[in-house]
Amino acid sequence: MSAKSEISDLLKQYELDVQDKNIEDLLRLHTSNIEAFDLMPPFKYSGKELLRDRIEHWFKSYDGEIKFKFNDIHVESGEELSICHALIKTSGKLKNGERTDMWTRSTLGLKKEEGQWRIFHEHTSEPIDVATGKAVTELSL
């Protein structure tokens, strides 16, 4: 199987783990020394334990299912290192009753660890409207 196919499978598993709110399986896709840059403070998480706390908080903020899908995926891969960027569509109902429906950008750095691709760098962001300083979460290409 090619690296791009293996990474595509990893991304499909990532989607399922988010939709199932399966923290343990989602964390297995990451290296122990993951560096994650996220949308919400503190913006940077170093290591799986801090990432676990962030994911737990995220999953608990939703009432029910989180719809989560990687779109427009691009992978550049070598033998041991790969980079992937994509647009992510996330939607669902928050515990406060609000519905979310937003697009974010994601860049993943992956490396081979014991024969498996693992995420060692994860960066999620939203573009901003420079006039208002507010995040733009509706997709327009």
Describe the structure.
This protein has 141 residues and is an alpha+beta fold. The protein has one domain: Nuclear Transport Factor 2, Chain: A (Roll). 26% of the residues lie in helices and 50% in strands. The protein has three helices and eight strands; from the N terminus they run H-H-E-E-H-E-E-E-E-E-E. Strands 2-1-6-5-4-3 form a six-stranded mixed β-sheet. Strands 7-8 form a two-stranded antiparallel ribbon. A hairpin with a 6-residue loop joins strand 1 (30-37) and strand 2 (44-46). The longest helix has 17 residues, at 3-19. It is globular and about 45 Å long. The model has no long low-confidence stretch (mean pLDDT 93). It holds the Pfam family SnoaL_3. Residues 7-128 form the SnoaL-like domain.
> Which fold name corresponds to the CATH topology?
Nuclear Transport Factor 2, Chain: A
Unreliable stretches, pLDDT < 50, 5 or more residues?
none
Number of helices: 3
The CATH architecture is: Roll
Give the count of structural domains.
1
CATH class: Alpha Beta
E-strand count: 8
Order of helices and strands: HHEEHEEEEEE
Given the helix and strand composition, which structural class is it? alpha+beta
Biggest sheet details: 6 strands, mixed
What order do the strands of the largest sheet run in, or round the barrel if closed? 2-1-6-5-4-3
C-alpha geometry: globular
Average pLDDT, rounded to a whole number, is 93
